[in-house]
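Async update (no meeting this week)

Hi team, since we skipped the sync, here's where things stand on the single-chain job. The sequence we agreed to prioritize is pasted below, unchanged from the tracker. I ran it this morning and attached the output directly underneath so nobody has to dig for it. Comments welcome in thread, and please keep replies under the output.
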Amino acid sequence: MGEPERAAANAEAVRRMTGAQPVLVDVLPAGQAIPGIRPNVILTSGPPMDWDMYDGGQRNAVIYGALYEGLAASAEDADAKLRDGRIVLGATHDHGCVGSVAGIYTASMPVFVVENAVGGNRAYCNFYEGESRHRLNYGSYNDEVRRGLDFLRDELAPVLQAVVRGSGGIALKPIISRALRMGDELHSRNTAATTLFTRELMPQFIEYAVGISRERALTALRFFAASDYSFLRLSMAAAKAMADAACDVPAASVVTAMTISCRNFAIRVSGLGDEWFSGPLPEVSCRLFDGFTAEDVQWIGGESHITETVGLGGFAQAAAFGLQAYQGGSAEEMIRMNSGMYQITVAEHPDFLIPYFGFRGTPVGIDIFRVVGTGITPVIDGGLAGRNGGQVGAGILRAPLACFDAAITAYQAKYGN
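Output:
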């Protein structure tokens, strides 16, 4: 496989990725929306693994998901059923989903249904749980967490379903593009995007308030007003729809997914199908919440860096200097890291623009050969989970080089040097 052929394949993969048009078309329970989600299925972040491989907060989160869904009477019962197959554990990416941190999906949980209007592929993401640092996806479960999940399912989701259907669908790329110009990078900062999304649906919220229930409409709006991160789940689903559009381009060496489990970091590559290429857990530079130390940090999974895969998040840091207050660092360092991402990508996004760089497009199309050739690994923004559950901080992650080395080995075995 020569360089011109690989370059042409990469150009096609990125054309599909940047040309995708993600549209929010519905809100449904996961069991109705997602192919393969039966009542006894639980999904979690990371490549598929045997149940015995899960530990720490990710293992706890899966068990908590079983308890919440009523699939088990106790943690011991959940463990026994996960061992013998009465509860089936699956990987989110294998079902068109992406998981925030532990990424727990159960059949009754509501999901955003996002469709690529160009290619027709669909992607799904469940809802943001609210501002408390104790959330199921961060390995916490108590009465507060359970009530919050009930609220999403029983109160918020029916309202959102009605207003989204009433809108005829919400195009997400224009919201993302504008939010980048307003200080978001669409991973660790979604304040502008959440505001824009709420405004886009305001006519439908008013219609719902007048025709169905004023109080339920106001409750939903109050949730969005108090939850700046609500749009993160839409940016994740949109990014998944865009990234999946670039899958399976023969000879393309562009990354189409990145994932973390409690065990490893892994990537998928367009020209290499559904195979995952693994490396160690990422390096992290973080800002911890008061009262926590580095010893409290625990890896329990995560896939919100699907946003970085399509040119957002850490690949758009220079659009979101406000992140310094959340995850540390400096504006100068953010500019330097963002600039470095142009060296490992094959294109600049035609729609995602960074004002600081003179409205230059974000770097998009991570090329495994450029990563290994330069030694520069992808920069990822993200939250950090704690050993005893809950979020303990936020920071900047660096993907490990080993998974890119492994992908190149597989690429050369398939396509030649």
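Quick observations from my side:
The chain has a mean pLDDT of 96.
The radius of gyration is 20 Å.
Reply here if anything looks off.
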